[in-house]
Design a protein that fits this description.
alpha+beta; disordered N terminus; globular; six-stranded antiparallel β-sheet
Length: 167
């Protein structure tokens, strides 16, 4: 009988969570009938910020908003609250990809012609990341938010899932 010990540190888990967040966001954009090229391009700046702020413990939420370009009106939003409480499965890292896909079906697609933006929420004192600046969420008036469980889990970082749709 042999024993194996796995040690994860914040650097490994932050990379795992950031990479899988990009994949989940790409799935949401694609399923919504939109081109994920903007997300992939933006991830050149957003990705390093996600990794840096997950590693430092400053990132507390990732949001993707779907809106009508002409009016700026919010027509859908996905939030991924981040927790650093170590409640993930010991020594395991996982992504609930099927759960996210089923939740996407419940939320419904944004109407054409929608656009999208990814917004990161980090606590004061976060490390500086080039290309990142101030942002504000659009109003959720007339919408309802629903918590839908865990999307990504690691031994020390977890990303929950919440979606917003018209009430």
């Amino acid at each position: 009988m042999s024993t194996h010990t796995f040690t994860y540190n914040r650097s490994h888990t932050s990379i795992f969570v950031a990479d899988n967040m990009r994949s989940i966001l790409r799935d949401i954009v694609s399923w919504s009938g939109l081109d994920p090229t903007k997300l992939v391009d933006d991830w050149q700046v957003v990705g390093p910020a996600v990794q840096a702020w997950l590693r430092s413990g400053h990132l507390y939420e990732i949001s993707i908003e779907f809106f009508l370009p002409a009016s700026g009106k919010l027509v859908g939003r996905w939030d991924f609250p981040i927790a650093y409480d170590g409640n993930g499965v010991d020594g395991d890292m996982w992504v609930a990809r099927e759960h996210v896909r089923r939740t996407i079906e419940k939320a419904g697609r944004p109407p054409a012609p929608s656009s999208y933006e990814v917004i990161l929420w980090a606590h004061a004192g976060r490390p500086h990341v080039d290309g990142m600046g101030q942002a504000a969420l659009r109003s959720t008036d007339g919408m309802i938010g629903r918590l839908s469980g865990t999307a990504i889990a690691t031994p020390d970082i977890m990303a929950s899932l919440k979606y917003w749709r018209a009430a």
